Amino acid sequence: MNTTLTAVKGLKVGHWTQHGAKTGCTVILCPPDGCIASGMALGGAPGTRELALLAPEKTVERAHAVVLSGGSAYGLDAASGVMRWLDEMDRGFATPFGKVPIVPAAVIYDLGRGDPSVRPDAGAGYTAASLASSEPVTQGAIGVGTGAAVGKYLGFEHLSASGLGSAAQRVGDATVAALAVSNAAGDVVDPQTGQVIAGANKDSAELQKNLSDFFPTAGSNTTLVVVATDACVSKTQAYHLAQSAHIGIAQVTRPSHTVHDGDTTFVLSTCAGPEVPLITLSVAVQEVVARAIISGVRAVQKT
To answer: pTM higher than 0.85, yes or no?
Structure first.
């Protein structure tokens, strides 16, 4: 059974990976007509593209793909390649003079993990889009998760490898799923016990006591999340679910949403399924996001 993002029918996921350089990008392709989409950045140091368009009051309601990329701000170029692929497929927002693909994107800083001169570019995004599949999402050190790491608040020498993770669950007759990569300054923890799953393994009490002495890695941390559902929601409701996704990040990331993190969430709805109460969807989103982050970390630890 598929328990990853592609459990939401109509979505496809593809990757471009450079293991030697420890970087890559991941593309989430929507159905040809796109998905209702929204998003939100709460961390202090985001790297994004088209995020403003996803605000609930903005005119365009649908996105045709989402790109998560390594390479810091350089990696935003990968979205240009995805736009080219979508253009060739004749997908996009209809305008009087042609279709324009809407491709929000966000990046993590992985330049310190491998070769910082190798970054996902437009060709990488095009390749990832062309390889996108509805098969269960491969997790771990792949795509945007290739160079991800957590627990950097004490410095890069104390980090632990992270990765790309995904999770899904049924909510009545609907599916709610998440794909996430944690590249956080903080540790990833078990929300039930508070035990560190991956990170610097600093005692949490000592961490809070000496927090002002930490974070020598300004601007080099981020958790990125894409939530997807077939439940029918409006753009405004998708925005509220993007808020819930941040709660899922906070449940398993200690600390999260710091001024040095670019924590960003996207929400996609195919609207192919039933309407579900927003409160029910919100709780499910928190759960699948937390599970996806942990799944990405554990997938790397198994290799």
So the answer is: yes
